[in-house]
Design a protein that fits this description.
314 residues, alpha/beta, Rossmann fold, five-stranded parallel β-sheet, 11 helices, 37% helix
């Protein structure tokens, strides 16, 4: 996949609401295989699509890209041997040691591309459309679904769902929404109406723990007011909860849940490598060591004492 193909796929992932990182080579020193302008997409799961460099650069870029997605902040990497750059590394740039067998180096800019908040408004009332219009003005991905057409498939654990059916299919819509386990679920209506809907669903066997997550009434409490002002109150509550981090599932989920692979330091070159079969494991005196390349593994095999002593001193 060339650079333009990467950008096309980035657009597709954005439209689907998936989080990813975009990595771009902004400088190179030969003989690195990465070229200026080379681009790649790294998904939350660590899948790389595109080309950013060879076998030494790729694992480091994937590892740092997953961190960028989780933290939501861009990073500028300098991949190579620290001895190549000395005191010339600008402040704020991260140096990541790579391959002991090449004098090449790369400067890679990694930026997170996080999905816009996803809001599903259920209902066809003026309230539903006002809430949707306000959300779109904030740049949120917003869908309006009529009550009878709404199913759990319209939402996910990252979605925010507002049920504004206002007496038409309230129970059915809330039951479907609860099954999706969204980050936020609010029912527009009075407290009395909300209690009646939740009580009915409890009698139908919907777990109480799920019903307890339903905000009823949805939005900040403004008392008796117009439907336009209630819509503002609903959006205000959602913005407040997102800003405080209370909607944890509204963040990239897979990167947060996935356990990062175990890592080890190559005792020969100092590069961080994955501690699995891809890291060319070698056992010595009851300890398993991992290597970035066959060359490092061979050097260790020829004189393990030299590198074990170095690692012990570190």
């Amino acid at each position: 996949m060339d650079g333009w193909g990467v950008l096309e796929q980035a657009g597709e992932l954005t439209r689907r609401g998936e989080a990813f990182a975009l990595a771009t080579v902004v400088w190179r020193q030969g003989p690195s295989s990465g070229q200026q302008g080379s681009r790649a997409i790294i998904t939350e799961a660590g899948e790389l699509r595109g080309w950013i460099g060879g076998a030494c650069a790729e694992p480091a870029v994937i590892r740092e890209a997953q961190r960028v997605i989780a933290e939501g902040a861009p990073q500028l990497l300098l991949l190579g041997s620290p001895e190549q750059f000395g005191a010339a590394v600008p402040e704020g740039m991260t140096v990541v040691p790579i391959s002991c067998q090449s004098e090449g180096a790369l400067e890679v800019y990694i930026e997170p591309v996080l999905p816009a908040p996803h809001l599903v408004v259920v209902g066809r009332s003026p309230m539903a459309h006002t809430v949707a219009d306000l959300a779109r003005a904030l740049g949120w991905r917003t869908e309006v679904v009529d009550g009878p057409d709404f199913t759990a498939a319209h939402a996910s654990e990252r979605s925010m769902v507002i049920v504004a059916t206002q007496g038409h299919y309230d129970e059915e819509a809330v039951e479907q929404a609860v099954a999706a386990r969204p980050a936020y679920l609010g029912l527009v209506g009075s407290r009395r109406r909300g209690a009646a809907v939740l009580g009915y669903l409890a009698e139908r066997g919907v777990p109480q723990a799920q019903l307890d997550r339903v905000h009823t009434p949805a939005g900040l409490d403004l008392g008796k007011t117009t439907h336009q002002e209630i819509a503002v109150a609903i959006l205000a509550e959602l913005v407040q909860l997102r800003a405080s981090g209370a909607l944890g599932s509204d963040r990239p989920a897979q990167a947060a849940r996935a356990q990062p692979p175990a890592q080890a330091t190559d005792p020969v070159c100092g590069m961080t490598v994955t501690a699995d079969a891809t890291g060319r494991p070698l056992e010595h005196d009851g300890v398993t060591y991992y290597f970035c390349s066959a060359g490092c593994r061979r050097a260790f095999e020829q004189d393990p004492a030299a590198y074990v002593k170095r690692e012990t001193r570190c």
